[in-house]
TrEMBL record:
Species in which this protein is naturally found: Pneumocystis jirovecii
A GO molecular-function descriptor: cyclin-dependent protein serine/threonine kinase regulator activity
Signal peptide: none
Source species, domain of life: Eukaryota
Biological classification of the source: Eukaryota, Fungi, Dikarya, Ascomycota, Taphrinomycotina
GO aspect biological process, one term: regulation of transcription by RNA polymerase II
Name of this chain's protein: Cyclin N-terminal domain-containing protein
Length: 79
């Protein structure tokens, strides 16, 4: 699955997560899930310090996942 298959798509099946660009690049599915979790955790930590509403944090988490469906996760960003 490349970018074109995800373009404009907001709902993903479990099957879609098995073939993300990161997994296709050699990452394990478990590593990708852990790194996605780290990204969401970062959003929550920063958002809590800024006293942002939960809706804002949840929306940011959705956008993080949405952005990285057609992209390879970057370790530099998530560290």
């Amino acid at each position: 699955m490349g970018y074109s298959s995800h373009k404009g798509k907001w709902y993903f099946d479990k099957e879609d997560f098995k073939y993300t660009p990161s997994v296709s690049d050699g990452w394990s599915l478990e590593k990708e899930q852990i790194d996605r979790g780290k990204g969401v955790n970062f959003i929550i930590q920063v958002g809590a310090r800024l006293k942002l509403p939960q809706l804002t944090l949840s929306t940011a988490a959705v956008f993080l996942h949405r952005f990285y469906m057609p992209e390879i996760l970057n370790n530099k960003i998530l560290k």
